[in-house]
């Protein structure tokens, strides 16, 4: 499926660039197109931050590769608009036509034999451009590069060329000194690090620009749905629908210790409207809480199309039996919190009655560490937070499940290694009960017939968008999980209004065609 944002391995992008240059001749036209876009975005950042461009000091940190060349060629364009531009070379060599163009335009070039001049230029900078290393390099910054990045003054905006230097391009992993950018300008195809944590947090706002590279024919490794795709995928009841045909979600959640988890799970499912019924199974006291808060819920066991298991469950024999029965049924299951161990041990032992597209695990980093422990793979919470995509793939492959790894950027991972990343939420979403609402939305989508990967991806996006709306409603103040659930219908309504608006444009075309026509990126903007 073509989506609003797809990311490709760095080697695949480099190969496409090499093929294009060989086809039309090895000149620097791609570099100059990239530089033109880079200069435009730098000028916009300067204008937004400083009120203008003229007389502002721009420092280019220049490495030996194409990213350094892009920075150098952007320098004269900024110089012609009145900026005072200094290129600080990180190595003995750099793209010589760019160096010559800088000098001809009246810019300054600081070479490696004058290290003090580089740090002095950075101390006076109004904007820093990171062109140190690019997609062909990996690992932390070292030596002069690390020293220069450390010398960037706090509060000075940084624009990274293609990706933040020091961040692994394919994994987003960070192993030491690196650039933390406010804006990353990437060309023709995004690299996975701009969508995968923790690297995506170092990338800031990502601007994807077209420099004329033909569409890549290889498969992407990461995707992010935008509003158009969400609108097209969202389950909408037909004219003959009734509550049973729309799907029934069975919920085994909550405990006397954590009754609120049950309430929030059911609230998330009901407010999403994806399924027709949420049927709750739990202790009598918890059931009373659920029915008081969400009167639309239906108590007791009955026929269901999917299960949501484990949120807030703790030491209850009847619920444990219900979880085991649900896992053995082969029906689609969202597996959270108190049901994770039962699911993991079953599947690790070879009991895999449901396929990976019917089982969605929803752990946070701490729960991921426990899952890995049950698989005899030692890893701490900090390890998972540093490498969420890697460990998500490990668990997905080991258990043949789909894994949703919760975080500031939530990842959904298939056993084949393909990853979706959704990151629409403000930091205020890090609050108790938020994961329960997310699980409820995902469960309702699976009851409506979506597979685990699409349900997890869509739920994460809707959840994040609802958090952003709730945050906005509170004038940018704190939010609660309940507020997120209550904002969910409006978010979905806005998406469906978008779908209605798009229908005249897209007719019956599939999402892959629609995506080629609609540019509405979530977290990645395009120009």
Mean pLDDT score, rounded? 91
Q: Roughly how many Å apart are the termini?
A: 22 Å
By DSSP, the count of extended strands is 19
Question: In which order are the strands of the major sheet placed?
Answer: 1-9-18-17-16-15-14-13-10-11-12
C-alpha geometry: elongated
Question: How much of the polypeptide forms β-strand, as a percent range?
Answer: 5-15%
Largest sheet: 11 strands, mixed
Low-confidence stretches: 505-527
The number of helices is 19
Helix content estimate: 40-55%
Structural class by sheet pairing and helices: alpha/beta
The Rg value, from CA coordinates, equals 25 Å
Can you give a write-up of this model?
The structure is a single chain. This protein has helices at residues 10-24, 29-50, 66-80, 96-104, 115-123, 143-150, 199-203, 227-233, 259-272, 284-293, 317-329, 340-348, 365-374, 381-386, 388-399, 434-447, 452-473, 481-506, 511-517, and strands spanning 5-7, 57-62, 84-89, 108-110, 127-131, 158-161, 183-187, 205-209, 222-224, 248-252, 277-281, 298-299, 306-309, 333-335, 359-361, 402-405, 410-413, 419-422, 524-526. It has 527 residues and is α/β, with parallel strands linked by helices. β17 (410-413) and β18 form a beta hairpin. The longest helix has 26 residues, at 481-506. It starts with a strand and ends with a strand. The model is unreliable at 505-527 (pLDDT under 50).
